[in-house]
Amino acid sequence: MVARVSRLSKKKRSHTELRAASRHLYWGMRYLSERLQFVLRSANSNREDEFQGVVSAIHESFLVHARKMSEFLFQTSKRVYEDDVIAQDYFPNVNRWKQIQPAPPPAIREMQGNVGKLLAHFTYSVVEHPEGRITWNTSDIYVQIFEALHTFLAEVDASLLDDRIELLRAGNPRIVICRPLYPPEARPPYQIACVRDLASGFELTSGG
């Protein structure tokens, strides 16, 4: 069984191990982008057939991958499993990541707890949420993970990352980005807006 250890005493990983593990970042963010795009395109559908079940399943998949990405980027627990891949592993000086690591925003904190309680366990907490339904703030979760990832990418030694990580940069036209619709002075979208997520007040933007 893998032991839990202090974050400060976590085993240092080799250049090769870190580069190989970074592939999970690429696939994790790609999965989030693909699933978010599908969910937002389908969110305002009035269909009540089995298609809604497909949308729900893909949304749950989005949330599971969001939990993984958030654990990598927003890890604040003093103890972690020895084989957990977390952002601090990529910094020889752990204090450097502690200085720039974003604090988990409310939508991320709620998602981390609710994915565990409502998707991965049978729990009495469901009583507080009829039918296990809550507001997930899906677009907010995506934006906050995307922005935290770019804080990480701006500081990490690029030689420790798989080459495909470059595809996650904001300038890549195939990356799905969301932006607030209001206020009007909010930063412009990276690409052309193609669909609106009315529930959260976000526009989905995508190129290609």
Descriptive labels:
globular, 6 helices, single chain, three-stranded antiparallel beta sheet, 208 residues, two-stranded antiparallel ribbon, 5 strands, mainly alpha, disordered C terminus
Number of helices: 6
Uncertain runs: 180-208
Helical residues, percent:
40-55%
Number of domains: 1
Number of strands: 5
Inertia-based shape: globular
Measured by DSSP, the beta-strand proportion falls in: 5-15%
Largest sheet: 3 strands, antiparallel
Rg of Cα set: 18 Å
Order of neighbouring strands in the sheet with most strands: 3-5-4
What is the string of SSEs from the N terminus onward? EHHHEHHHEEE
User: How far do the termini sit from each other?
Assistant: 45 Å
What can you tell me about this protein's structure?
With 208 residues, this protein is mostly helical. It has one domain. 43% of the residues lie in helices and 9% in strands. It has helices spanning 15-21, 23-42, 50-73, 94-100, 106-119, 138-155, and strands spanning 4-6, 79-81, 177-180, 193-197, 202-205. The strands form 2 sheets. The protein has a 3-stranded antiparallel β-sheet with strand order 3-5-4, covered by helices on one side. Strands 1-2 form a two-stranded antiparallel sheet. A hairpin with a 4-residue loop joins strand 4 (193-197) and strand 5.
